[in-house]
Amino acid sequence: MYQRLIPTILGLLVLAIAPQQLVADTTANTPTEAYLAYHQALQRGHHERALWPYMTTEAREDFESRFTPELRNRMFFMMKASSPRNIEVADVRIENGRATLELVPADPGNRTVGTAHMEQEDGEWKVVDVVWQQR
């Protein structure tokens, strides 16, 4: 009896959890939360479309206008490769619906720093651009 019950329970748990994992959660209350969700999507994603829920409409349109459909996925992987895997938000400045985040790698041996610009769009914080550079 228990042998049939365990797979059924596991199946129900998967059905209960899976839909939540398939939907991007873009309802971040702060620029830090929104950026960390974007960064996680970048690190876990396999295509530039993984970032669209976290970017402003203007940033997405700019990306699409700069790169042909054939080059967009390559650019996504270049963005992914140039971004440290684990980061921390060191400073946040907010003014008039715009935010600037200073980003640092969690690995102290990594000598890059980043800056993310964000804006509120439809009540949510979205990424405008992110730049990483060597210190």
Could you characterize the architecture of this molecule?
With 135 residues, the chain is an alpha+beta fold. The protein is built from four helices and four strands, in the order H-H-H-H-E-E-E-E. It has one domain (28-134): Nuclear Transport Factor 2, Chain: A, CATH 3.10.450.710. The chain has helices at residues 2-22, 31-44, 57-66, 69-82, and strands at 87-95, 98-105, 112-121, 124-134. The chain has a four-stranded antiparallel beta sheet. The model is unreliable at 4-24 (pLDDT under 50).
How many domains is the backbone divided into?
Answer: 1
Which CATH-level-2 architecture?
Answer: Roll
Low-confidence segments, ≥5 residues, pLDDT <50? 4-24
| Strand proportion | 25-35%
Keywords: Signal
What keyword list fits this structure?
alpha+beta, Nuclear Transport Factor 2, Chain: A, four-stranded antiparallel β-sheet, 4 helices, 4 strands, 28% strand
Layout of secondary structure:
Elements: H1 2-22, H2 31-44, H3 57-66, H4 69-82, E1 87-95, E2 98-105, E3 112-121, E4 124-134
Antiparallel strand pairs: 1-2, 2-3, 3-4
Structure in a nutshell:
With 135 residues, the chain is α+β, with helices and mostly antiparallel strands. It has 4 helices and 4 strands, in the order ααααββββ.
